[in-house]
């Protein structure tokens, strides 16, 4: 029978193209691939997803499908030398669901299909075991009743009948007795009957698998995982093998490596004398594969798993059955794994030569790297806490992170407890420079007042500390050591948990995964990624103690901002007071400022050693620090400070401070100073002129579309150019850039469908156009991209494709960025 005579709904394992997962489903594609690799897969064929879609649309099997299925069945009989519904060797089938996107356990599968009196008799004669026949008959009847006919209870009476069968009884008599018992139980339950003709059974099973695409649980699963509802499922029709045949038979599931820790070595379970459903059903406890399998079978499973890993370049989850000591593979798919395991496995696969770098990098996401290095809460635990009334209040998420710790209401006590080794969450009505030591010591910071540009928010972001601000319900009494929110009272020392993205404060601690285990593997993986992308990544630091963690994260350089440094060391207020005090003598007006810049930058440069350090000049109109900088008052008093180079002396003071810091740090530091918001070549020329006297390379953080359009001319004067993606996105949307730093209110706005794309996670086409060709800009300028907030893999890939190879990012997001760049480079 040639393929072309068919309507083309079906394909055998041998014919199917394993890459065509949309048509074959994941299960069918995996079986086709394995069987084409000459691995031991029971023969079978696949009814593709188009047939399912047609069935669901018309509510009946598409024309020609029945004929095609029967033709395939003839082929299968011929190929296996077995007979469907007869003997001497009966062909029994499994009819299995398998969607293009894995939906484990959501849809139906029917085993042992093809049972009638003749095949039962033949089965008994072939095996000489009527107990086995009884088991298979009862299993089939129960599964068909449940799956196709919607029966609820296969009938307790059946078990007794099956248990009473002797091995040497006449199989025909056994069939009659068991079938009758099954039918009686079903009739009581549904009034229905299982067809006696195996071909009718097959059609009933195929339809049932099609229908199982639309069960409530399958729909719910797809909604939750954002899987489209119109894909449909494929159906695999496959010759049965019997793990329930004898003691040297059984079934199992094995991961090619430990999916929890990533450790190499087979990890899985095996249940002797069983069919696959028994392992899942949990009625008997399976044994570890390495102990339970006979040595020869285990050896074969080992070598098969290794070959499959090499062929697919990934860790796999394999369902198998052993029939009389012969191994059969029944399913293969990429294994689900913890973030820790994902990292370890990817690194190991490359080191062993099992996977190529691109293949290994494909298996780990930036989000997993983030989770491994910065443990987060279990989403289920958060949901349970919300439902359980543990949510104390919700403020504005100002700096992401999920931390638990002891609640402390005073910065001195926070510092003391942290020094004693305790994790601390500092809660204040509002923070000021007087709180800095406590803020630096705390794992999390929460305030009752202030917005996302307040002191607490700006300093927390500079420190990379999880922070929630503006939690207005909180009443904090540091002297009484009590925090009230509505009806609830918390005492200092009580465990609390903070989510810096959602702004939620919970009572009680959450378990967070410990990041330690995978760190060696993480370093190896990131080295692979860094090597693949060949990019520079500069990490943002604010305090000298930030330099080591940045270096450990794999940065190739550092960036810092003078406003952040002064805010985090408590010196910003002096400058602001000075600016508010009014005109002073021109020549030495910023002398104190110069001293502070020199004093605070020296230790950072000293620690940086050979690492390049990019310094951003103070930005008195920075949208993300409005409250902290008292912008309205400062710019009312000094209107020219709204312009990048409006007050030359301010830039000179910073250059002078930086020069002194370089000298004090030994004179070898590689530094530059960048002034934000330049948009005109004339400004760039003036900046170069100002810098000429200092010898420090200068440049700008470009924040406007106009500046990007003039980038070539600006770069002619200034060797240092940074593009601020967040500001450019905000400019194109006409939104304040600070909005892109927090979850709300933008999340809610997006949920209402009022913006076609999220400016935090996707480059707007207008920005994409603007940046096209920019990396090719000539001259000495090296154009870098400054990223803010959580790394979006989509944005990183877009930027990499555009040709950008130099990036700046916060320290906690350095590793996710390095990975994302490696993935972008090998995509
Ligand atoms: P699910 O998608 O829920 O995992 P499967 O189609 O994989 O459902 O079937 C579940 C189990 O049924 C398999 O793990 C295997 O143990 C058993 N099974 C399926 N097909 C066969 C077969 N041809 N021979 C023996 N057992 C099978
Ligand atoms: Mg399965």
UniProtKB/TrEMBL annotation:
Show the SUPFAM superfamilies listed in the entry.
Glutathione synthetase ATP-binding domain-like, Phosphoenolpyruvate/pyruvate domain, Phosphohistidine domain
Q: Which residues form the PEP-utilising enzyme mobile domain?
A: 422-503
Q: Which GO terms describe its molecular function?
A: ATP binding; kinase activity; pyruvate, phosphate dikinase activity
Task: Tell me the Pfam families matching this sequence.
Answer: PEP-utilizers (PF00391), PPDK_N (PF01326)
Pyruvate phosphate dikinase AMP/ATP-binding domain mapped to chain residues: 58-289
Q: Which superkingdom, per the lineage?
A: Bacteria
In its keyword annotation, does this UniProt entry include Protein biosynthesis?
A: no
The UniProt keyword set, sorted, is:
Kinase, Pyruvate, Transferase
Name the chain's protein. Pyruvate phosphate dikinase PEP/pyruvate-binding
Q: Which organism is it from?
A: Nakamurella multipartita (strain ATCC 700099 / DSM 44233 / CIP 104796 / JCM 9543 / NBRC 105858 / Y-104)
Traced from the root, the source organism's taxonomic lineage reads: Bacteria, Bacillati, Actinomycetota, Actinomycetes, Nakamurellales
């Amino acid at each position: 029978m040639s393929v072309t005579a068919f309507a083309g709904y079906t394909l055998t394992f041998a014919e199917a193209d394993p890459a065509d997962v949309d048509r074959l489903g994941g299960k069918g594609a995996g079986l086709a691939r394995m069987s084409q690799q000459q691995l031991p897969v029971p023969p079978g064929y696949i009814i593709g997803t188009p047939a399912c879609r047609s069935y669901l649309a018309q509510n009946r099997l598409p024309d020609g499908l029945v004929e095609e299925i029967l033709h395939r069945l003839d082929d299968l009989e011929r190929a296996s030398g077995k007979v469907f519904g007869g003997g001497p060797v009966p062909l029994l089938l499994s009819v299995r669901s398998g969607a293009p996107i894995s939906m484990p356990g959501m849809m139906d599968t029917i085993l042992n299909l093809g049972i009638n009196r003749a095949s039962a008799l033949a089965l008994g004669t072939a095996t000489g075991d009527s107990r086995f026949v009884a088991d298979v008959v009862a299993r089939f009847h129960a599964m068909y009743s449940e799956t196709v006919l919607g029966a609820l209870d296969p009938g307790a009476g059946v078990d007794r009948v099956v248990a009473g069968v002797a091995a040497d009884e006449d199989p025909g008599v056994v069939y009659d007795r068991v079938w009758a018992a099954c039918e009686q139980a079903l009739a009581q339950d549904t009034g229905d009957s299982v067809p006696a003709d195996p071909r009718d059974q097959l059609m009933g099973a195929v339809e049932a698998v099609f229908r199982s695409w639309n069960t409530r649980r399958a729909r719910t699963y797809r909604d939750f995982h954002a899987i489209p509802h119109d894909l449909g499922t494929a159906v695999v029709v496959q010759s049965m093998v019997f793990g329930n045949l004898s003691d040297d038979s059984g079934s199992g599931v094995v991961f090619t490596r430990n999916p929890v820790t990533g450790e190499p070595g087979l990890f899985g379970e095996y249940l002797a004398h069983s069919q696959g459903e028994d392992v899942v059903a949990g009625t008997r406890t399976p044994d570890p594969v390495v102990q339970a399998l006979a040595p020869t079978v285990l050896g074969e499973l080992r070598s098969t798993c290794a070959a499959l890993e090499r062929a697919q370049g990934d860790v796999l989850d394999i369902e198998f059955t052993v029939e009389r000591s012969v191994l059969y593979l029944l399913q293969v798919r990429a294994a689900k794994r913890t973030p820790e395991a994902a990292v370890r496995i990817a690194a190991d696969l490359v080191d062993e030569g099992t996977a190529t770098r691109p293949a290994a990098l494909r298996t780990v996401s930036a989000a997993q790297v983030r989770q491994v290095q910065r443990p987060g809460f279990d989403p289920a635990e958060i949901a349970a806490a919300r439902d359980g009334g543990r949510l104390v209040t919700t403020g504005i998420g100002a700096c992401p992170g999920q931390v638990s710790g002891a609640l402390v209401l005073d910065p001195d006590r926070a510092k003391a407890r942290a020094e004693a080794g305790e994790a601390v969450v500092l809660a204040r009505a509002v923070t000021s420079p007087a709180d800095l030591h406590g803020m630096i010591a705390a794992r999390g910071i929460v305030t009752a007042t202030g917005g996302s540009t307040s002191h607490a928010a700006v300093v927390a972001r500079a420190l990379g500390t999880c922070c929630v601000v503006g939690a207005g319900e909180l009443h904090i009494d540091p002297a009484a050591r009590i925090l009230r929110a509505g009806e609830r009272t918390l005492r200092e020392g009580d465990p609390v948990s903070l989510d810096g993205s959602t702004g939620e404060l919970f009572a009680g601690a959450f378990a967070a995964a410990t990041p330690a285990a995978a760190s060696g593997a993480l370093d190896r993986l990131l080295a692979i990624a860094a090597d693949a992308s060949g990019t520079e990544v500069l990490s943002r630091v604010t305090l000298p103690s930030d330099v080591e963690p940045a270096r450990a994260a794999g940065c190739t350089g550092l960036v810092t901002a003078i406003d952040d440094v002064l805010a985090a060391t408590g010196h910003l207020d002096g400058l602001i007071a000075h600016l508010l005090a009014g005109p002073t003598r021109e020549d030495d007006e910023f002398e104190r400022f110069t001293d502070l810049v020199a004093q605070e930058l020296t230790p950072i440069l000293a620690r940086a050693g050979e690492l390049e350090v990019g310094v951003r000049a103070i930005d008195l109109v920075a949208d993300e620090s409005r409250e902290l900088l008292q912008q309205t008052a400062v710019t009312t008093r000094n209107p020219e400070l709204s312009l990048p180079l409006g007050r030359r002396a301010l830039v000179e003071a910073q250059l002078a401070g930086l020069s002194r810091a370089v000298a004090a740090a030994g004179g070898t530091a590689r530094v530059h100073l960048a002034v934000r918001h330049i948009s005109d070549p004339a400004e760039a020329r003036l900046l170069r002129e100002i810098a000429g006297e200092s010898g420090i390379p200068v440049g700008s953080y470009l924040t406007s579309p106009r500046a990007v359009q003039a980038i070539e001319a600006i770069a002619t004067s200034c060797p240092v150019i940074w593009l601020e993606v967040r500001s450019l996105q905000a400019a194109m949307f006409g939104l304040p850039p600070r909005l892109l730093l927090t979850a709300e209110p933008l999340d809610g706005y997006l949920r209402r469908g009022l913006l076609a794309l999220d400016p935090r996670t996707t480059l707007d086409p207008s920005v994409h156009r603007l940046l096209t060709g920019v990396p090719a800009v000539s001259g000495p300028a090296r154009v870098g991209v400054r990223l803010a907030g959580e790394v979006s893999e989509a944005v990183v890939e877009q930027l990499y494709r555009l040709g950008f190879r130099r990036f700046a990012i916060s320290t906690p997001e350095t590793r996710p960025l390095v990975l994302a760049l490696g993935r972008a480079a090998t995509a």
